[in-house]
Amino acid sequence: MSAALLRPCAMAETGEGWARLLSQELRLILAAISPYLSSMRLLTLALLLALPVGAATPKRARAPRNAPNVLFIVADDLRDWVGWMGGHPQAQTPHMDRFARRGMRFSNAHCSFALCNPSRTSLLTGLLPSSSGVFGNEQDWRRSVQITSKATLPEHLRGLGFLSAGAGKIFHANHGGPDSSLTGWHGGRRGFEQDRAWDQRFPAPGIQIPELPVPTGQNFNGLDIWHWDWGALDLPDVLTEDGAVVQWAGDFLRRKQDRPFFLAVGLYKPHSPWYVPREYFDRFPLESIVLPEVREDDLDDLPASARAHAKPGSHHDRLLATGKWREAVQAYLASIAFCDAMLGRLLGALDAGPHAEDTVVIFTSDHGWYLGEKQMWHKGRLWEEATHVPLTIHAPGLTQPDSASAEAVSLLDLYPTVCDLLKVAKPAHLDGASLLPLLKDPAARRDRPALTTMGGGDRAGYAARDRRWRYLRYADGGEELYDHDSDPHEWINLAARPEHSAVKKALAAHFPTEFKRASRPAREVVPAPSGDGSQHLSLQIGDELSADEAPLLAGRGFALDAAFDFDPAVDGNSTLLAQGDRQLGWALHYIAGRPTLTVFHQGEATAIQASPSAAGPCQLRASLDGDGLLSLAEPGRSEVLGLAPFTGGFPTNPKAGLAAGQSFGILPLADFPNSTPFDGAVQRLRLTLLPAEKE
Q1: Domain boundary residue, one of 422, 448, 474
Q2: Domain co-membership, 405 together with 261
Q3: What are the pLDDT digits (tens) for 64-104?
Q4: Residue 183 sits in the same domain as residue 313
Q5: Which of 225, 250, 266, 422 has the most CB atoms around its CB within 10 Å?
Q6: Does 360 lie in the same domain as 331?
Q7: What is the side-by-side strand order in the sheet with 261-266?
């Protein structure tokens, strides 16, 4: 049997997937040879290959008897501007406040990373960013070698027999840009979806976010920042993307389900663009808006690395220059009020349905947001405004109404907590600690702080937050320390004061000592040159090599052979493999469904393009030889030729490395706005670097 037939694909990342893959492949083999075999020999061969001829798919596990259900609700970019948290005096969140009194509220809850993708990856895998290697919004977490063998929360529960349903943004995704694209920057509306995690999915299998009724990029606010826009919509709630998600989830909750379920609901607001129905803006008259409390000298006692964002032309400078600070706060408050209304409808549907008394409800947000504090906007840093999130848990028969804990907890702790509440086994890989002891006894104490990461690899910085202190340490050694008992705004950096050295040491002891790579190490990817000077790399999507690790290109051409499953709707603007940068490099990628080989030299691009690939199994071959001849072929369909802007192989070595399946990278955003990581299953990705040309 050909070894190629046994190569894994995305559907084969679990035991059940392997069984399906092998079954399909072997059935094809048997079908091909059956005319030449007797029925008895055919049956014998099937048995030898462990192929269950005519057998049904093995039954899935059954959820534990009397197990509760879980309604897991996660908002996006929602900081502590919630009534019960006191983050802003004008916040209107009656449903969040009522739910907080219904269960147990955690007033000191924090995300693991103040960006969508690494935060959600951490929450749903139970891994710290330093354990998964995922720290950017463009990283496809599904390709991390630290994650591939570990089940996500919905995947784990589905494997245990729970009905797993998802609506809206659960894994990382975004609005799809001005065209509401299915894919694109940050993955588009599909995002980095894990298809095998769900029995049911809304708006459709493989899609996380419904199409926005008004796509982003309208520039209502005049700032011309494509995703950071705001404006009132003359639409009813139900016609918004969150309205559609809540309507579907509400219908689910009002029906009697035949087995215990895990229903995850992602509310996209208050993520930008802040487009919500007009009534929510009308609740906050612009002239009455209260701005966040800030100090003009707040950056003076910070290390240089913490002040990098405060430069001429920053978002804060533009808001001040245009007089739009109040508008931004108004739009954010309006979006929070809209999010609160959506939560109210979900809880109302649960209460009106048959599962009100046997459903655990968890409400939280993936991270917070800055609105001018420390001259910062958006997210991604280590201060309280971006790490502090609402968290309320209601577990019937367990949590005490109107109970609270001020212990520092992390979203990382939710995976083991859900397992404990459902009384199912916890996977061994989890980095978090269950909140069950706190749910049982709100007065219980913890001996670990909540950790938040910024950056990755040798540039990672960390923050540790306990009941009283926040300690930050950047990759360059810069430090900040804040006493929340006396300084809740984090205005006074105490890190340089010797009397607090013991506090810093105790908190720093919890910082990770290693930041693992999401990609394979170079030693597993780059072989030694062959006797003739060529190098043969067998790559997989997610491989990433620095310029120092990647094979040398000077004086060399290349040949590439790829076999993969192609879906034009998902991979029509994706990159399979690229090396170098726009000064010198190359990429094999797709543009609008057409295979494209692009060579970059001195900032100029030379490209050849084949006919559009059909959906399904696909094979591409591409090469650049010593004479500068470019070739791109889809065997059996088409081949195109062209000339590179140089001969004799690449004139020198690129200053950037090699990446398989990465979005953008070598492709400039301005020219490739919908570039996305390659999503499909890849059976083969072989790169041969030809021997260097002799002088």
Answers
A1: 448
A2: yes
A3: 878 999 999 999 999 999 999 999 999 999 999 999 999 99
A4: yes
A5: 266
A6: yes
A7: 200-202, 163-168, 261-266, 69-75, 359-365, 391-394, 104-106, 403-405
With a pLDDT cut of 90, the percent of the chain lying above it is: 84
Structure tokens at 67: 């197990």
Has 172 been annotated as catalytic?
A: yes
Catalytic residue among 172, 316, 378, 394: 172
Same domain for 37 and 74, yes or no, is no
Helix runs in 89-240, H state only: 94-102, 116-125, 129-132, 153-159
pLDDT (average), residues 201-205:
98
pTM reported for the whole predicted model: 0.90
Q: How far is CA 614 from the centre of its chain?
A: 28
Which residues have a Cβ under 8 Å from the Cβ of 459 and sit 6 or more positions away?
475
Q: Closest Cα to residue 165, out of 224, 250, 108, 48?
A: 250
Average pLDDT, integer, range 419-426: 97
**pLDDT digit string, tens, across residues 543-568:** 999 999 999 999 999 999 999 999 99
What percent of the chain is modeled with pLDDT above 70?
90
Asked if 556 contacts 649 with a C-beta cutoff of 8 angstroms, the reply is yes
Kindly tell me the sign of the dihedral angle through the C-alpha atoms of 108, 112, 114, 116: negative
Whether 99 and 16 map to the same domain: the answer is no
Q: What is the domain extent for residue 650?
A: 522-689
* Domain of residue 645, CATH code: 2.60.120.200
Both structure tokens of 455? 């950056």
34/151 same-domain check? no
List the structure tokens of 333. 């408050």
In a domain, 504, yes or no: no
Is 9 considered catalytic here? no
Residue 609 falls within a domain, yes or no? yes
Domain count, the chain: 3
Residue 176 lies in a domain: yes
Angle at 102 between CA 106 and CA 284, to 5 degrees: 80
Among 116, 339, 419, 618, the active-site one is: 116
The answer to whether residue 20 scores a pLDDT higher than 80 is no
Q: Are 532 and 690 in contact (CB under 8 A)?
A: no
35 and 76 inside one domain: no
Tell whether 473 is covered by a domain. Answer: no
Tell me what the pLDDT averaged over the chain comes to. Answer: 90
